[in-house]
Amino acid sequence: MPPAPPAASSWSALRPALPILIGASLMLSLSMGLRQSLGIFVPPLTRDLGISVSDFTLAVSVQNLTWGALQPFAGALVTRHGFRPLMMAGSALYLLGMLLFTFADGLPGVLLGAGLAVGVSMACTGSAVAMAASLRPVPPALRSLVLGIVSSCGSVGAMLAAPLGQHVIQQADWRMGGAAFALLALAMLPAAWFAGKVDALPRPPAPAMPDGREATARDVLRAASRNLPFVVMAVAYFVCGMQLIFLSTHLPTYLDLCGMDPMLSAQALAIIGGFNALGSLFFGWAGGRWNKQVLLGGIYALRSAAIVWFFHALPTPGGTLVFAAIMGFLWLGVVPLVSGWVAETFGLRWQAMLVGVAFCSHQLGSFMGAMGGGLVYDMLHSYTLAWQLAAGIGLAAGLVQMAVASLPRGPAAPAAAG
User: Fold this and answer.
1) Where are the alpha helices (DSSP H) in 103-227?
2) Residues 344, 217: contact at Cβ < 8 Å?
3) What DSSP string describes 182-218?
4) Rounded distance, CA 86 to CA 162, Å?
5) What is the pLDDT of residues 328-379, one digit of tens each?
6) What gap in Å lies between CA 245 and CA 141, rounded to an integer?
7) What is the pTM of this model?
8) How far is the C-alpha of 102 from the C-alpha of 118, rounded, in Å?
9) I need a surface site. Which of 102, 178, 203, 304 has the fewest CB within 10 A?
10) Pair 294, 179: CB distance under 8 Å
């Protein structure tokens, strides 16, 4: 059953958590906003360095695969060593990655900076870790709503980064745009330090196995692998990554091919960020009242319908901004739903690790959205097949997700009692 609506006393208990929540929100806002805005660099960077669109998307694909592969390990490290060391190290690495990207003189530099370094950093500063840090100091009645608020704040970065970067690129060049991104990444360090105050709080109680011993990471992973709704949710997460990274990486190039003003791409990414804030708030609120997995399936199905509507005809400035608003509202609403469902089902002790496991599927989808979209374009000189696959797979995943939501949860997780 979803948690009851929060009482007034729960809100007063939230005040000591504000530094942690603000720090986690700012860190997430910058880490997500910068990487979501890398698509604005594709036209000028590929022309300047003499690399292809698929070469650039290879770097984005490496970033997403690295992020996904390391996310479960980052979640496990949080349980053992705390949030602050991990988030501070990740923030410093993000800054280094932006600097390497800015001074790249070929594909290797782009791969190392925007690919590998940012990918490792995202495992330490992205949504799984930021949401886990935000859950610890929050009363249970407020968890879903607070996750929506933090996710909402985490979307503001794209509203700032995309227009700022595009303006600097147009006034100077793409390298100065990269330098502006590096300055924004610098602000992640103090944000991570404040979010790390969560380490001073008592750790969640250790879950117990039937024989009385504490459940280990292996025990919790085994229980999750036998839980059908978790497995379906994790597999369907593939669609989320595929659709979002396809759009954030290839929408600027698609609009450029259609003869649109380059600033329209930045405006679209900014609108995605703004409506993402509204959507995250809504789905955080809704997740406390309705079935989270049904809501997830609805998001995937509605995104697919929006993709079909937008790409079936040539874009217009007005239609592009409407499409950006629709997709923005549906963008990161999945994050509070997935994080909240895992916390309700498996408890808090290993929550970051389990969300990281599900996130591996998300990042495989991100790889396909970035790299697959680039390969399809290079082979066919058209994005038609790419958007058709993104819409078709997304609709199928959404329907399956909603169908499975009504089934029993399966074997109880040992962490649930914690």
Assistant:
1) 107-110, 118-125, 127-135, 143-153, 156-171, 174-186, 188-195, 217-225
2) no
3) HHHHHTHHHHHHHHGGGGGSPPPPPPB-TTSSBPPHH
4) 27
5) 888 777 877 887 788 777 776 767 778 778 877 887 787 777 767 777 777 7
6) 33
7) 0.70
8) 13
9) 203
10) no
- Distance (Å, whole) CA 115 – CA 240: 20
Which tokens go with 393?
């797979």
Q: Give the Cα separation of 393 and 294 in Å (integer).
A: 17
Which token pair is 151? 């996710």
Rounded to whole angstroms, how far apart are CA atoms 268 and 211? 55
Distance of CA 148 to the CA centre of its chain: 13
The backbone torsions φ and ψ at residue 214, rounded to the nearest 5 degrees and listed phi first, read -70, 140
Q: How do residues 219-232 score in pLDDT, each as one tens digit?
A: 777 777 787 888 88
In whole angstroms, what is the distance from residue 67 CA to residue 74 CA? 10
Q: How many CB atoms lie within 10 A of CB 81?
A: 11
Q: Are 192 and 87 in contact (CB under 8 A)?
A: yes
> Which sign, positive or negative, has the C-alpha torsion 72, 64, 240, 198?
positive
